[in-house]
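Figure 2 data, in text form.
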Amino acid sequence: MPFVTKGSFSAFGFTLVELLVNISVLGIVLAFFVPPMISRVTNNARRTATIQEMNVLREAIMGNPEVRYGGEVVGLGFKQDVGRLPRHLVELVTRNPFEGMYAQITYLGKETLPGWDPYIQKGWNGSYIREDGNMGYLYDAWGTPYRFWVSGNETLGLESAGPDGLFWGQPGAVKDDDIKVRF
């Protein structure tokens, strides 16, 4: 074992100034890299949540032919029950959009839907999705309302404006980051 003299202890450690400089440099580096990483993780989580919610809405509208009971398809959606696509997502939770909190929402073709008739197995047989009291199912994870994805005269599915909050083609939309789910 080498003989340690009184002045040689400083060769084995860091001074307080060196530690403060290293911590400051580390803090500056983290200040540049952490916010973009958090933003990317947050946007990816919101994108995933939006896609999952849009898939739930699609199943509520179109049904799920894989849900069977006794060999018979029971996973029918709004379209099979009512005979048309909903004119607004509100129709998935209420048969009478003129009552309560739904009265304030206006859209083309707003009408009270026919009730379920068990003999002909037609009519509104919902609710098709769960109402949270805030009508959260109308908005994506960024707070932008969903809309039907229409091409020509055909409704293809649902779409979300994505992270920028603007649908592709709207003024100010720089890139096409819309999220689309086909029926």
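Caption note: The two ends are 78 Å apart (CA to CA).
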